[in-house]
């Protein structure tokens, strides 16, 4: 009978492999927890801005009225940290043809002194909303 030695007799994963897999799963979970809420928040903010822009343009509101409308909607949605003036700038201020450029940053702590920075940017125009 021939005796096998070394790697030929090993079956399954070693302790080192198991520890590495657990560490990788932990890091992936932590990344997901830090990134996904920011992505969902951006999606919701874009929906709010699009809906408010469409309504403001349909009602022929001014840029100032649009900003007030967005701030009111953000407070209704319990998004007290976000102010309209900090999130977007106007690319077109003509009454009834308002268009905005959304640009803002969300920073989440990953661990210790390492942060994850989510930067969101995009244009919302009347043609996009309709």
Automatic annotation (TrEMBL):
| Keywords (A to Z) from UniProt | Membrane, Transmembrane, Transmembrane helix
Query: Pfam families from the xrefs?
Result: DUF4845
Q: Which InterPro entries match?
A: DUF4845 (IPR032314)
Kindly list the residue ranges recorded as spanning the membrane.
Answer: 12-36
Q: What is this protein called?
A: DUF4845 domain-containing protein
Species whose genome carries this gene: Psychrobacter proteolyticus
């Amino acid at each position: 009978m021939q005796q096998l030695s070394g790697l030929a007799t090993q079956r399954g994963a070693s302790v080192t492999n198991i520890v590495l897999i657990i560490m990788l799963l932990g890091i992936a979970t932590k990344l997901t927890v830090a990134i996904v809420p920011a992505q969902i928040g951006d999606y919701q903010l874009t929906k709010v801005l699009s809906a408010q822009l469409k309504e403001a343009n349909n009602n022929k509101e001014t840029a100032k009225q649009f900003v007030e409308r967005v701030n009111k909607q953000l407070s209704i949605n319990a998004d007290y940290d976000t102010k309209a003036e900090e999130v977007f700038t106007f690319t077109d201020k003509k009454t009834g043809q308002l268009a905005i450029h959304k640009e803002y940053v969300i920073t989440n702590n990953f661990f210790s002194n390492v942060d994850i920075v989510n930067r969101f940017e995009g244009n919302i125009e009347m043609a996009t909303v309709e």
